[in-house]
């Protein structure tokens, strides 16, 4: 691993968290996979040697339970879902170099060898622990078969995680007042011998690792709290029949915890890719193992793209395992926010979701959804999906900005210049603007911002619309034909640059544009240097790349969705499976049969205390725009904001550092309580309060174009 700007001369591996082989994919799941695919393609456009890998997570309790309910083996059940995922991802142009699964021979061998290496290095030990047992049903209970009370914060918790409270990972036996989720019987704890990984020995290493780690700020900041609280050693075995067997002596027939073999699939999938294409094309060992490459003994550039619900696994347990076995540590972790639906969490069991197949069945092209998911907010921020918002982004940005420039430019060029306009090179102005777009693209890659990758393209297309409008070549054709041809050559050069830079977000549409430009080969193999080269192909008659989404279509889609959700809710009045916004589900959430459903029963009831209208009038609530943002030294959560309130600019301190990417905050429109008492925090005077919703600090904003200083009333 290096910390040099991409591209580097080391092999890079981009991974996505493993989907749990237990149910259909919806667009909330797709956010992470699209993000990983966009980032991997962007690295390749820069000329970085890259492998993009993932696989299906096959193990865990719900697979075994659901397989039994369907009367099939767990392997058959999980393989069926694995094959469905392998067919679905390409439909959204998510192009893994290798997509494996955790139950295959490669992952089984590598997992068992890595566990042996941990044991031989003295990092594993046996310990008698208390395991939940159902005395009525006479069976030991794996952690997801147990629920009770978190011993750290007192919230209701699953057997392996305080999912409704402090989010802390819980070891077997820690949950208080345990009950069986199978029978509802009170459980009791009985002693069993299990294997533990001494994660606590790696606390200093992990603290330093987080200092080096790149990616989204939530992936760096959240794990620090767990380290400061004191790391607990990690139980890596479970009382189950389904999983990878613990290697060596195993008298109790234990299997490895699913979170042991799940991330190892990243290595296994990369190895399978190398075996298919040859080590000369991509050397998996040089990427993953330390000491293999003489030039780069630290290994390659490993980038994990995950949902934020599995940050702990990828920044604590996984790097400790890699460090203990002489593997390369991750260079970056990109943790995405969740996707909600109309402000409410996705619910798979209640059918409140936009399913992946449903989107395609409606006749939509995959690339507009890729663009929407990649660019609608910072990667670590939550995204609220609605058909109205989707249509607005498509119509305004893809049709109105990018598509409009490309079609009008190429149609004019095709009609007026038989083989395309001729010039030696783009004008200095246009060449400089293309260079600027390429630099913005490279900066977005090195900032781990898929949104900025899209901005680089739409800004370039916006410039193209302004350029052609300013120069009006249609007026120059008769009076100054040479100047008209130069202008249109510039526009075609801009179109070629857009084809290259837009490929990561809209690969299929970019390939179609490449063909219209008559460029040789495929845009998927073009690097950013091709964006700087003038057009050389024979133009074909263009067609419009993107289609408008009409209002009537949006109304029809909403009606279908509402009817489907209502029908599901009529069948079951229990609302306890709402996501509450945690709808990513894009990684191996251990042993969860409905990974994106979170109990909403902990929402605070509405207050019975009322205020008068006059009291409300005393609140001076204004629209603001963040002009600048920077972290405050010594404060884990606080950010110093410079906020434009129209009449004046103020400094406001807000607790956003761990929940938002600070670099994404400038230009964000926010709602500010302007007559809040001043306060001094860490030596900075705060003059106002930025309003946000919930524990994830979902920033309040305006729906349309109210400017800074507008009063909220």
UniProtKB/TrEMBL annotation:
Keywords: Aminoacyl-tRNA synthetase, ATP-binding, Cytoplasm, Ligase, Metal-binding, Nucleotide-binding, Protein biosynthesis, RNA-binding, tRNA-binding, Zinc. Residues 563-611 are annotated as: Disordered. ATP binds at residue 348. It is found in: Cytoplasm. One of its GO terms (cellular component) is aminoacyl-tRNA synthetase multienzyme complex. One of its GO terms (biological process) is methionyl-tRNA aminoacylation. It catalyses: tRNA(Met) + L-methionine + ATP = L-methionyl-tRNA(Met) + AMP + diphosphate. Its cofactor is Zn(2+). Its EC number is 6.1.1.10. Coiled coil: none annotated. It comes from the Archaea. Homodimer. Is required not only for elongation of protein synthesis but also for the initiation of all mRNA translation through initiator tRNA(fMet) aminoacylation. Belongs to the class-I aminoacyl-tRNA synthetase family. MetG type 1 subfamily. This is Methionine--tRNA ligase. The lineage of its organism: Archaea, Methanobacteriati, Methanobacteriota, Stenosarchaea group, Halobacteria. The gene is metG.
């Amino acid at each position: 691993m290096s910390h040099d700007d991409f591209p580097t001369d080391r092999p890079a591996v981009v991974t996505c968290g493993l989907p749990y082989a237990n149910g259909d994919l919806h667009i909330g799941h797709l956010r992470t996979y699209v993000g990983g695919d966009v980032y991997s393609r962007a690295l390749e456009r820069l000329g970085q040697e890259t492998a993009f890998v993932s696989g299906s997570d096959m193990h865990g309790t719900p697979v075994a339970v659901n397989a039994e309910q369907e009367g099939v083996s767990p392997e058959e059940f999980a393989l069926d879902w694995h094959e469905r995922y392998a067919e679905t991802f390409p439909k959204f142009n998510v192009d893994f170099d290798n997509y494996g699964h955790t139950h295959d021979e490669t992952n089984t061998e590598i997992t068992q060898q890595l566990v042996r290496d941990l044991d031989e290095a003295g990092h594993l030990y046996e310990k008698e622990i208390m395991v939940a047992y159902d005395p009525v049903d006479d069976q030991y209970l794996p952690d997801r078969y147990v629920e009770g009370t978190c011993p750290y914060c007192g919230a209701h918790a699953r057997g392996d995680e305080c999912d409704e409270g402090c989010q802390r990972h819980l070891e077997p036996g820690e949950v208080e007042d345990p009950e069986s989720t199978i029978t509802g019987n009170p459980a009791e704890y009985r002693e069993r011998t299990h294997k533990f990984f001494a994660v606590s020995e790696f606390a200093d290493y992990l603290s330093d690792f987080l200092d080096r780690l790149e990616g989204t700020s939530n992936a760096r900041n959240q794990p620090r709290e767990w380290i400061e609280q004191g790391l607990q050693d990690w139980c890596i075995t479970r009382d189950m029949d389904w999983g990878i067997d613990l290697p060596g002596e195993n008298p109790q027939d234990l299997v490895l915890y699913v979170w042991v073999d799940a991330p190892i699939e990243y290595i296994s999938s990369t190895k399978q890719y190398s075996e298919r294409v040859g080590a000369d094309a991509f050397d998996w060992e040089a990427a993953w193992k330390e000491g293999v490459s003489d030039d780069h003994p630290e290994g390659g550039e490993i980038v994990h793209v995950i949902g934020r619900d599995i940050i702990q696994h990828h920044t604590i347990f996984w790097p400790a395992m890699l460090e203990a076995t002489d593997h390369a540590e991750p260079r970056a972790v990109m943790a995405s926010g969740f996707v909600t639906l109309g402000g409410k969490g996705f619910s798979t069991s209640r059918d409140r979701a936009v399913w992946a197949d449903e989107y395609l069945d409606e006749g939509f092209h995959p690339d507009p959804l890729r663009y929407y998911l990649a660019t609608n907010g910072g990667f670590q921020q939550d995204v609220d999906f609605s058909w109205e918002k989707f249509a607005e982004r498509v119509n305004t940005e893809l049709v109105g900005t990018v598509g409009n420039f490309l079609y009008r430019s190429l149609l004019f060029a095709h009609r007026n210049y038989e083989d395309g306009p001729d010039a030696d090179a783009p004008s200095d102005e246009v060449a400089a603007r293309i260079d600027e777009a390429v630099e913005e693209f490279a900066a977005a890659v090195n900032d781990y911002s898929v949104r900025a990758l899209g901005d680089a393209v739409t800004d370039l297309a916006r410039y193209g619309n302004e350029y052609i409008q300013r120069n009006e070549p249609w007026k120059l054709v008769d009076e100054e034909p040479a100047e008209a041809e130069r202008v249109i050559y510039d526009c075609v050069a801009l179109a070629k640059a857009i084809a290259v830079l837009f490929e990561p977000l809209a690969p299929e549409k970019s390939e179609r544009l490449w063909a219209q430009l008559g460029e040789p080969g495929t845009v998927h193999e073009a690097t950013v240097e091709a964006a700087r080269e003038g057009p050389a192909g024979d133009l074909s008659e263009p067609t419009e790349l993107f289609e408008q989404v009409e209002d009537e279509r949006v109304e029809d889609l909403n009606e279908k969705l509402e009817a489907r959700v209502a029908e599901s809710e009529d069948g079951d009045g229990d609302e306890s499976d709402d996501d509450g916004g945690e709808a990513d589900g894009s990684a191996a959430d251990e042993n969860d049969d409905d990974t994106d459903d979170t109990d909403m029963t902990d929402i605070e009831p509405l207050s019975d205390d009322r205020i008068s209208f006059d009291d409300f009038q005393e609140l001076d609530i204004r629209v603001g725009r963040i002009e600048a943002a920077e972290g405050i030294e010594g404060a884990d959560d606080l950010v110093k904001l410079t906020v434009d309130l129209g009449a004046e600019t103020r400094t406001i301190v807000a607790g956003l550092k761990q929940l938002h990417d600070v670099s994404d905050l400038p230009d964000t429109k926010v709602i500010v309580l302007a007559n809040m008492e001043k306060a001094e925090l860490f030596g900075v005077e705060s003059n106002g309060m930025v309003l946000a919703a919930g524990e994830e600090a979902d920033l309040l904003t305006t729906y349309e174009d109210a400017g800074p200083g507008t009063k909220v009333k």
